[in-house]
Write a structure and sequence with these properties.
By secondary structure, the protein is an alpha+beta fold. It has 2 domains: about 160 residues, Jelly Rolls; about 200 residues, no CATH class. The chain is built from 6 helices and 17 strands. Strands 1, 2, 11, 14, 15, 16 and 17 form a 7-stranded antiparallel β-sheet that branches. A 4-stranded antiparallel β-sheet has the order 4-3-7-8, sandwiched between helices. Strands 5-6-10-9 form a 4-stranded antiparallel β-sheet. The longest helix is centred in the middle third of the chain and has 27 residues. The chain is elongated, with a radius of gyration of 33 Å. The two termini are about 40 Å apart.
Length: about 425
Amino acid sequence: MKHANEQNIPNYLNVNTNHPLIYDSHNYNSIQKFITINSQDRDINKYPFANQFEVELPQDYLNVLNISVYNWTLPNSYNVFSDKLHNINMTFQINNPYNPGEHSLSDPLQNYIFEALVSNMYNNYTINISNGNYTSNEMVTELTNKFNYAVSEYIINYFTEKGYTSQLSDFIANGYYQEFVIVYNKVKKNVWFGNRSSGFTLTNSIAVNNNKNIFQIQNCGAKYGLIHPDDNEYGLPKHLGLTKLDEYSINSPYNADLTKFFYLTGSSSDWLTPNPLLPGSTTSFIEATNKLELIGPDSFYIEVYGYSCIDEMYPYTESKFTNQTNQTSGIINASLMKIPAPIITEDVNYISGQVSSQFFPYRFFNPPVDRLRKLLVRLRYHNGSLVDLDNFNYSFMIKILTLTPQINKIITVPH
């Protein structure tokens, strides 16, 4: 019988070989690889903010068995209050302005101010606090100034439109509108809103409705994950300890003791007094129901798209689903690591952390992932909103366990 080459069989059809096949022994070596990722590594043109970006890894990681976050370094200067988090604005009305005519005050400027306030009695004034982080004293100072500024701005515009030139000059010369006084009760840990002459309303329901609308708009444009509205979260009023409902001021002559903080002594205990320049004026106030909240969410979530492993519940929201079913609402493989939010201080810019050797979440793959080359990272809160890091960067280390196949070898030892 002739061999293949003797039968004139072309070489490319010849299946005979002098090299024996090496069968898979199903033996593998596990190799740990560590990758450090810094948000500075991102394409800033494509990802201007550090809270979400994609990076290409330095090599192909083959046969990935599991992946986890090993350690991290985060800035402690992230913004608790920002326009991106929709928690810097609130609205109010002055629905019972001081009327100089009722108290026989013959002051032309006060009459014109009363006219301006009455014209806007059923409309809202809006304030926006500055982005950043606050102490309790800084917050109430900001609120006092912004409340008075909002009213002053309206009066200036009103006088300008009406052509009240001389009254506008007098208004500016007298220091604008200064009737709002907002303070912090250090014992109760809450905020007290006061006005030295007029009754007012905090229209918190507007913040609740705006919050729901914002979540709907954001979710329509969501690319890598949804934002889940929380019925317990409604912007700045929530942080200030206010309720979801509109709150109406109390006229203090009927509760005179409530304009005193009895943990203080002497005249300093009177945190709110009538304006001495307005005869017959009485104070009005609102006490926040809950404590002042300045620290923001307690945790950050590192999400690695396609490689996360921690299941999460959604924040509860009132809906047809939650009212009519007893099923849970949540998402599977929502994040790769949950870490405590840094405590903001003035002396330390960054804090570091590392996963405990006793417990660390990791994403396990069976069969292993053939190839890993890119990672899409998001740093977010529980409700899906991205953490506002401003211009700060952060870094973390990823641990990857890969499998390398090994060939069985027979070693002959000579006798």
